[in-house]
What we know:
The protein is 38% helix and 15% strand. It is of the alpha/beta class. The protein has two domains: 4-69 and 321-423, Alpha-Beta Complex (Aspartate Aminotransferase, domain 1); 71-319, 3-Layer(aba) Sandwich (Aspartate Aminotransferase, domain 2). A hairpin with a 2-residue loop joins strand 1 (38-42) and strand 2 (45-48). 46% of the residues are buried.
Amino acid sequence: MHHTRSLELFEQALKNIPGGVNSPVRAFRAVGGNPFFAKSAKGAYLHDVDDNAYVDYVCTWGPSILGHASEPVLVALREAIENGTSFGVPGALEVEMAKRVCSAVPSVEKVRMCNSGTEATMSSIRLARGYTKRDRIIKFDGCYHGHVDALLVKAGSGALTFGYPDSAGIPRAVAADTICLPFNDLEAFQKVMSELGDSIAAVILEPIPANAGLILPDPAFLQLLRSETQRHGIVLIFDEVMTGFRLAKGGAQEILGIHPDLSAFGKVIGGGLPVGAFGGRADIMNCLAPLGPVYQAGTLSGNPLAMAAGIAQLDVLFGEDGFARLEKIGVQLETVYREALEKSGRPWTFSRIGSMFCLYFTQQPIRNLDDVKTADLEAFRNYFHVLLENNVYVPPSQFETCFLSLSHGERELQTTSEALAKAFAG
């Protein structure tokens, strides 16, 4: 396998794009080597500019749930593009998308479209603060909510220590109103509630964190969050940018049986185009302009191409029992991984829910970010590169989740099984 053209493109990109990439993880810094450049994608496969083909378990980081270049999505896009790419006034497809989201997710009474998951979480925080007239928020280690100043925050030194910036360019004053706690830690959360509960505007979390691999929540932890936020008048926000419309029709909250006050969405509802959305209780959503005092806007919000692609994708998922089919593929994929681990005698931890999975290179049970950090990163690097050389592409970081699509089948699983045997040998 060669990557001559990809290397040429990367060298050119380095001259004009910071780090040669438009999103950091694409640079392969966590695994070493240089990224490959895509030429096309179809079904379960990515094809690079050197004509290598890869079984793709990144699926554009989640949106391609039907597989790449799905025909229903392409048909919808061809029709939509003939009518124009952007209007700047309301369009009928925005109404159709809103109806689908509100009918699928019981906690969502009203929804507003935006352009990215980052924009959705940022807007949710602003709305929660405007609704409660409070400033402080709580987030959790290992939950990533986009590159929002108030949410790109590390934990402080103790349960009641406010966070500090996780990136240059974020004023300490912005981070000062964010409390960062360990995920799945009931005691730490209860302590903050007892001392500061009535000053908190919002609690935001990924209900199933998928930006530190894949961490499954303790049901008691989520129940505590729901009961305490209700008791203190705090807005509970679920960031379902990854899990929404991927794990179930009603998202992770359907599976977990918890109804948040607000939810952020993205990825799947755009069919591979830029998209975001946030929604929830009508009384909170009605605080948005033009009805209320909380301002939020976007030139391309509800873009007709993204709406058309997303509607087409949702209709396939909802109409063909797509989530049951994805679970079946997930079970088959998990069997492939567990059999390969057993044959090789590797003790590593495998995590899966529905069409999302992660192999952690540690024996440690995974409950929080500290557990994730016990992973052997050198072992992951070897695994990544052996898989890549054997035509299987997984995320280039131990701290990312893998995704399945409805296009993954027996042939792709067999290719994966053969690549795993080589990765785990020795």
